[in-house]
Structures are given as C-alpha cells and as structure tokens.
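Researcher: Predict the fold of Tyrosine recombinase XerD.
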Amino acid sequence: MDRHAESFLEMMAAERGAAANTLDAYRRDLVDYQEFLAARGESLLSADADAVRDWLADQAARGMAPRTQARRLSCLGQFHAFLVAEGRRADDPTSQVDAPHIGRPLPKILSESAVESLLAAARALPDAEGVMASALLETLYATGLRVSELVGLPFAAVARDPAVLVVRGKGSKERMVPLSDPARAALASWRSVREAQLDGRASSWLFPSRGRSGHLTRSGFAKMLTRIAVKAGIDPLHLSPHVLRHAFASHLLAGGADLRVVQAMLGHADIATTEIYTHVQEDRLVRLVQGHHPLAAASTGRG
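Model: Structure tokens for Tyrosine recombinase XerD follow.
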C-alpha cells in the first residue's frame, strides 16, 4: 500500500479512534482505488475528479451496490482531506464528484410480541446458557446497543448493578443508556453464575469466552440468536442483532419517546439517522388505517 494511505490509516486509528473493522474496510477501499489508478498510469497524488468518477463507474460495472460505492467515496474524501491537510495535495478531487443515489430502505422491525417470544425462548435455554442468553437479549432490547458494544462490555460496567449503563461507542465516544428492571434482573442472574463458567480463569469481560478476543464475538452471538429464533418460531433470516436494536428504537418512539432522547441512546451523531424510525412509525400507521378504518376499504372503490 502507498505510504500516504498507510499514514492516513494510522491517523484514523490514533486520532479518531476508528474501529478495527472500519480500518480494514478503508484499507480495502484504498488498495482497490490505488490498483485502479496504477492500471491507468496514475497515482493517489495525481488522480483528478474524472479518475474518481471512472473508479465509481468501474465499481458499478462490477455489480457493487450504490451504498457500497457511496461508502467508498466517503473513505476517499476523508483520505484526500488528509492529503490536503498534510500538504501532499492542493485539492480534493472527490469534492467535484456526486455520490451515487441511495434509496433509504426501512429497517426490519420486530413486533413487541415477537420480542417477548424471543426473550421467553432465551430464558428457556438450559442452565448457564439460558442465563447468559437472557442477559444478552434483555440488555440489547433495553439499551439498543450495537452488537459490538454489547459483546465487548467490560464486567466493571455492571458489577455494581447500575441503573444506567455507560457505553463506549464509535470513535471512543461515551454515552449513558438507562437499564430497565428486567435487564438489571437478567444481568444480576448472569453475574451470579458467570464466575463458575470461567473455570478459575480471570476475565475482565462481562461475557467472556476462550476465543482470541477474550469475549463473546459478534458471530457467536448471532449464532446464538439464530438458535433462539428457531425455538421462538421466528424466521432467523428476518432476525439479526441489529434488528433488535431497530426494535428498541421503534418501540420507544411508538411509546412516545422524544426523538432526540432516542438519538442520544443509540449514539447517532446525526439525528437524520434516527429519523428513519419515524418513517417506520408512519408506515405502520398508514397500514393500520388502511386495514381498520371503516372508510378505507370503501375509498378504494371510488372512481
């Protein structure tokens, strides 16, 4: 990889606290862009806006989704801003390039009854597995944490049965999220059996494992969630840890929660990201009226 790209990644890690997954994605983006330019006899320092547009067109031809193209263009924009700040370039060619149009699909939402079925299925798992699964799902539904935030919780975060969870999210930013009584009870049950699962090992993680990370992984939790979904009679193809985060947000808003409060609890930097859940509620209300209002069916036959 070009040394300027390496310097950019080092800056993103050291100064902006970019997560490992983000850095890996940016590395792949920059390598792909660099190889594309090399085939044209250009470099990261010489490429202009037309080169960027041609790279995006090449991605589209390779079947990459507009959302992926937009994310890669965002990475390139940050990289070029870094080059300008470092005095390596006088301009940012991405500033002249329009991002691909991205539709805004509504997130998948679970009903409250489906969530109750999931929680019941988690509690029904045998022995310590059920206790841990219940703690994971109750905490996720009560807080709307990102799955990486959930599995990476330190034991110290809940050691004293807090009413509020302090979470370190994207960019190492901290936020506070209230814990519901059911979540606190589930976590207390897990704390009572957690040490016995360690077999004498020491661990600073709330949900420890023997893997390299030292804690339950995202994929490990996703597999657990799939098993629970099957037991609850829910199609696992329509369920993921992120769907429970969606359920947390949409159910709060349906209950009358303030949008800004939900934004803070989700850790969204931009309220526009949170506003997607208002569209979910609007869509739900439209279906409700169409399905139950006495004049809705009659209106469809009017000419």
